Amino acid sequence: MTLSEEDYIKAIYHIGKGENTTVSTNSVAEEMDTKPSSVTDMVKKLSEKGLVNYKPYKGVSLTEHGQKTALTLVRKHRLWEVFLVEKLDFSWDEVHEVAEQLEHIKSEKLTDSLDKLLGYPEVDPHGDPIPSKKGEFKKAIKKLLSEVPIGKSGVCVGVKDSSAPFLKFLDKNNIALGDAVLVMDKEEFDGSLHIRIGDRDIHISQQIASNLYLKITE
Amino acid sequence: MTLSEEDYIKAIYHIGKGENTTVSTNSVAEEMDTKPSSVTDMVKKLSEKGLVNYKPYKGVSLTEHGQKTALTLVRKHRLWEVFLVEKLDFSWDEVHEVAEQLEHIKSEKLTDSLDKLLGYPEVDPHGDPIPSKKGEFKKAIKKLLSEVPIGKSGVCVGVKDSSAPFLKFLDKNNIALGDAVLVMDKEEFDGSLHIRIGDRDIHISQQIASNLYLKITE
DNA sequence: ACAAATTTTTAGTTTTGTCTAAATTTAATT
DNA sequence: AATTAAATTTAGACAAAACTAAAAATTTGT
Ligand SMILES: [Mn+2]
Ligand SMILES: [Mn+2]
Ligand SMILES: [Mn+2]
Ligand SMILES: [Mn+2]
């Protein structure tokens, strides 16, 4: 498997949100930042290799084999992200780019030893679940903060928008993964929220709330 | 810098044994397991990029810039080797292949954090010195065991032949990096040695002795 | 149902890195 | 010094992965 092939497999997996749906040529092109014609070419090749199902004009989906490949890549990507944060003191917004390279290193022993070193983590620094060696993982039970009802509380486990600017905003406002959050009140007018985070009461906009994931605790 | 370009730079560096000598097209081809014509093409490109000095029919050498690039690659390669052995329990003979991939990961922060995590090691698992961030390193003061005079002792710091079969032989015979070795006697007839390693007295052939490096201690 | 808009594919190029076969230069021998 | 051998480069071809422009299929709107 070449690096490029792997990135395509991963893109198809991600667009389908983990469930094995059929995705369009254009959506893959957009995700990968390439042209649709390039996608067509690659998808034909992947089809011949038995990694995807492809019918011209009808979209692509992963085969059993492709699915397994995607899970391995996601596993590697997220394990490396944990490594970078836990062992090398990287911050949220720095890990993705490097993990994008590290996920392509070919060594099953490396992946599994890393998993062990990190204590078999179940989620990555963005709150996304890490597939086990067998490809199993708990479907994330995370909810957007904007959809959490008043009175409920949870733990901050991830972001929807993982762009550097947003992550930097969170850093600046002292909102971090693992923080306990209680939804105290919601403004009907603009959807902004009053929340208690740690021991601080703060007020955040709807836009922020709809990009932060909580794992509901009660 | 592409992965392939980096591997060429490294090959030129290694053939020149770290000193900046001019090396032949053929030697690069052999080291890289490619054809001489491919080397010519690549060397032209590297020359245009200012990484090597190249005169047709006269061989290649690294420029200042190329030298620096080579040192960075060697640094990354060897740091990853230490990481694999120290943190992930890889053995001598397993690290090279994986490090060959990891050395190409682009992130200065990653390299330097790794260096810190490992406690700024000075040698890799094969006894080869690791360049510092600034590109400085102590020239190895290692000597082939076969050339150590009778009565002298040292610490096993590396191998000349780093092929898997040889490394496996050492494992099997309980000879490891860091072991203290005393040369007790030498057979004139076949050059074989009687050595004390740890608390064991053993007899090794000239062939083995000429592939093991010691750092002389007294 | 038909025309217009959109999506997707095909055809033809480009760049990178490799190869083979042939030509050229340099080195070694007589 | 001439010939032979070895090393190196050139020329031409190919596979991978991308692109642009044009053609074909599908979807949408009326
Ligand atoms: Mn990637
Ligand atoms: Mn992530
Ligand atoms: Mn390499
Ligand atoms: Mn090494």
From TrEMBL, chains A, B:
The keyword Ribonucleoprotein does not apply. Pfam families: Fe_dep_repr_C, Fe_dep_repress, FeoA. Residues 1-63 form the HTH dtxR-type domain. It is found in: Cytoplasm. Its main location: cytoplasm. Keywords: Activator, Cytoplasm, DNA-binding, Manganese, Repressor, Transcription, Transcription regulation. Signal peptide: none annotated. InterPro entries: DtxR_MntR_Metal-Reg, Fe-transptr_FeoA-like, Fe_dep_repressor, Fe_dep_repressor_sf, FeoA_core_dom, HTH_DTXR, Iron_dep_repressor, WH-like_DNA-bd_sf. Homodimer. Belongs to the DtxR/MntR family. In the presence of manganese, represses expression of mntH and mntS. Up-regulates expression of mntP. This is Transcriptional regulator MntR.
